[in-house]
Amino acid sequence: MDRDRCYVTNAVKHFKYQMRGKKRLHARPNAGEVQRCAWWLGAELELLKPKLVVALGATAVSSLLGSKVRVMRDRGQILHPSGKLDVLVTIHPSALLRIREADEREKNKLTFIRDLKKIRSFVRH
Questions:
Q1: Which keywords belong to this entry (predicted)?
Q2: What are the Cα distances from residue 66, in Å, to 99, 112, 115?
Q3: Less CB within 10 Å around the terminal CB: N or C of the chain?
């Protein structure tokens, strides 16, 4: 996809972290933080009216589709909640960095790429 045809945003609009020595490690937002930012994400989607939303990871998926959708179970699928949005579910790319075994990381990387290739074919139609 051409980058100028994409809009990138976050479901939660602030960065929460924990210090580990001199490093800041991202901390997953809780349900309340996701809920407090939902109006903002909703306003962005209402304004943009995208053909497809790509939900990268559990926070994005739960903010768009609720808690019944699971990233690992539903990844690679384009879901149509209440007929409003088409949402492609996949992992967050940072998850690939946390996989220690090289062959498992490569397998997951190829699956992630396969997921993302669905964007082009979906948007073309």
A1: 4Fe-4S, DNA damage, DNA repair, Hydrolase, Iron, Iron-sulfur, Metal-binding
A2: 26, 22, 20
A3: C
- pLDDT for 125 equals 65
What is the spatial distance between Cα 95 and Cα 102, in angstroms, rounded to a whole number? 13
Backbone dihedral angles phi then psi of residue 43, each to the nearest 5 degrees = -65, -40
Kindly report, residue by residue over 63-93, the tens digit of the pLDDT: 999 889 999 999 999 998 777 789 999 999 9
pLDDT digits 0-9 by tens, 6-26? 999 999 998 888 888 998 888
- The answer to whether the Cα torsion of 92, 94, 99, 105 is positive or negative is positive
Where b means 16+ CB within 10 Å and e means fewer, 72-91 reads: eebbeebbeeeeebbbbbbb
